[in-house]
Amino acid sequence: MQTVYSHGQPRLRPVWGESPQPSSRPPSASPTPATTDLSYLGAQMEDGTWRCTFPSCNSKNSYERVCDLRKHYKRHSRHLFCRHNGCPKSISSGFSSRKDRARHEARHNPTITCEWEGCPRLFSRMDNMRDHYRRVHQKQSRARK
Ligand SMILES: [Zn+2]
Ligand SMILES: [Zn+2]
Ligand SMILES: [Zn+2]
C-alpha cells in the first residue's frame, strides 16, 4: 500500500511558476516525476489518473500513465485554430492541417474587390460588396451632376 499524498498536499493545486524546492520533496514517495511540469498537460485525479485540461478539450478520458496523456495532448498541439477573433473555429475546434485552416480562413479573407473602378475596398462576400457599391458609389454617381 502506497500513500503518496500522506503529508496533506492538495492534489489539484495549480502550479503556476512556483519554484519547487527539491530538498523538501520526499525522495522516493512517488515513481512519477514532479507534477510541476505536467500541470500544463492535465490534472491528476483522486485515483491517480490524469485528465486532459486543454481549454477546449471535451474528452472525458482519464489516463493512467502520463505518457498516454501526453500522446492525447499532442492532438491539441497539432491543431491549428482560425486566427480570426470571434470565429467559433478560433476556440472550439481547430484544424489538423494548415491546408484545412487556410481553406476555412479564406472565408474570412476579403478577396472580392469593389466593382467601382479605383475603389480600394475588399469584401469577403459578394452581397457585402453589392451593398457597399449601392450605398457608396451609386449614391455618389447620383449626387454628381
Ligand atoms: Zn484533450
Ligand atoms: Zn474562422
Ligand atoms: Zn467601392
UniProtKB/TrEMBL annotation:
<keyword id="KW-0863">Zinc-finger</keyword>
<keyword id="KW-0479">Metal-binding</keyword>
<feature type="domain" description="C2H2-type">
    <location>
        <begin position="112"/>
        <end position="142"/>
    </location>
</feature>
<feature type="region of interest" description="Disordered">
    <location>
        <begin position="1"/>
        <end position="37"/>
    </location>
</feature>
<dbReference type="InterPro" id="IPR036236">
    <property type="entry name" value="Znf_C2H2_sf"/>
</dbReference>
<dbReference type="GO" id="GO:0008270">
    <property type="term" value="F:zinc ion binding"/>
</dbReference>
<protein>
    <recommendedName>
        <fullName>C2H2-type domain-containing protein</fullName>
    </recommendedName>
</protein>
<keyword id="KW-0862">Zinc</keyword>
<dbReference type="InterPro" id="IPR013087">
    <property type="entry name" value="Znf_C2H2_type"/>
</dbReference>
